[in-house]
Amino acid sequence: MSDVSVLLADDHALMRESFRALLDASPGFTTVGEAGTGAEAVRLAGEHRPDVVLMDVRMPEMDGIEATRRICAELESVRVLMLTTFDLDEYVYAALRAGASGFLVKDATAAELLNGIRLVAAGEALLAPRVTRRLIAAFTGPGGGSPAGPPVGLDAITDREREVLELIAKGLSNTEIAEHLYLGVGTVKTHIGRLLSKLGARDRAQLVITAYESGLVSPRGLA
After folding, report:
1. The HTH luxR-type domain covers which part of the protein (predicted)?
2. Which of 2, 9, 26, 92 is most buried by its number of CB atoms within 10 A?
3. Which domains does the chain have, with CATH numbers?
4. 173: how many CB neighbours lie within 10 A of its CB?
5. The 79-84 sheet, strands edge to edge
6. pTM, whole model, 2 decimals?
7. In 3-state terms, what secondary structure has residue 153?
8. pLDDT value of residue 60
């Protein structure tokens, strides 16, 4: 199995050096480049096509959200894992809508960081149930943000797919969804694959956003 290739994008050189040292010392990972600005991150992502871009939110020239939007639009195989100072950074929701596959706080442990990169590289979303609930609540409560454009429609999906989507939005794993709906894990994966295709979503993170924007779930429903 080949190493997970990672591009580091952070305007603090010390932070990049810290992440590089960790990745270089960890079997199964390769650092392919470092970017100090959002614009540089976009350029290097196109040049190296890494499996994962570890992206800071706040950077000069172009912020991490716009860089993520461009990378995800132009490079379908590249996943972006956002780094934030706090787990409810005001820009996290926008980053997910831009195509990010999840986020980590900068004080995450080395094990959490490495596991997060592996998950995102494998096409999973790094959104824990607790964080999912708090994230959506933050953007639907007083003073919170709101989705841009009209609500997303779910007319193309089946009733069973709708049930699976709702459970994804609640943060359940494939195994937990299978147990909840009395299905095989393989069947759940098939439903998720169809949801991704029908809803034009990149991964589970995008499915969570779709579930919220369609009105299928709400903060109360995720409590």
Report:
1. 150-215
2. 9
3. 4-126 (3.40.50.2300), 127-223 (3.40.50.2300)
4. 15
5. 29-35, 4-9, 52-56, 79-84, 102-105
6. 0.72
7. coil
8. 86
